[in-house]
Structures are given as C-alpha cells and as structure tokens.
Amino acid sequence: MKKAWFKEWGWVYQPISWQGWFCFLLTLAFCVQVFTTIDRHSHSASDTLYGIFPYVVPAFGILGWIASKTTETSRKK
C-alpha cells in the first residue's frame, strides 16, 4: 500500500484519502439504513437500540480494523 487511508486521531481514526472517506461513508450509510429499518418496526427506544446493536457495532468494528491496517503508523512497523 503506497498511501495511507486514515491517520490516528486520539482513539479513533480520521480519513485522509478518498478510499478512507468512501469506507467511512459506506459504513455510515449502512448504519442509517439499519436504523431506519429497525426503528420502523420497534415499539420503543430500547427496542431500537437492542435491534441496531448487532449490526452497528460490528460495522464500526470492521471499519476500525480497516483503519488500523491502513494508517500511517502501521505502515512504518
């Protein structure tokens, strides 16, 4: 990999290339779609939170893993 997609920004990663922004926006679009689908059929806020949890947490976990593998610091190791 020649160019980093993300850079470390505290405990999170900040996208610095179009590939990083694409991954971030794709994850965000997926989470919004999951939220609207789950919220449509739930009866309370806790139903919505319990419903989106199994989708949103792994989605951002995968994004975090991709970001950790494509940062400037991990390339130097």
Q: What is the count of distinct domains?
A: 1
The profile of the biggest β sheet is: 2 strands, antiparallel
**Looking across the biggest beta sheet, what order are the strands in?**
1-2
Count of extended strands: 2
Protein described:
- The chain is mainly alpha-helical.
- The chain has one domain (15-76).
- It is 70% helix and 10% strand.
- The chain contains 3 helices and 2 strands; from the N terminus they run E-E-H-H-H.
- It has helices at residues 18-41, 45-69, 72-76, and strands at residues 6-9, 12-15.
- Strands 1-2 form a two-stranded antiparallel ribbon.
- The radius of gyration is 15 Å and the shape is elongated.
- The mean pLDDT is 89.
Condensed summary:
With 77 residues, the protein is mainly α. The protein has three helices and two strands; from the N terminus they run E-E-H-H-H.
Task: Produce the secondary structure layout.
Layout: E1 6-9, E2 12-15, H1 18-41, H2 45-69, H3 72-76
Antiparallel strand pairs: 1-2
List key phrases describing it.
two-stranded antiparallel ribbon; mainly alpha; 77 residues; 3 helices
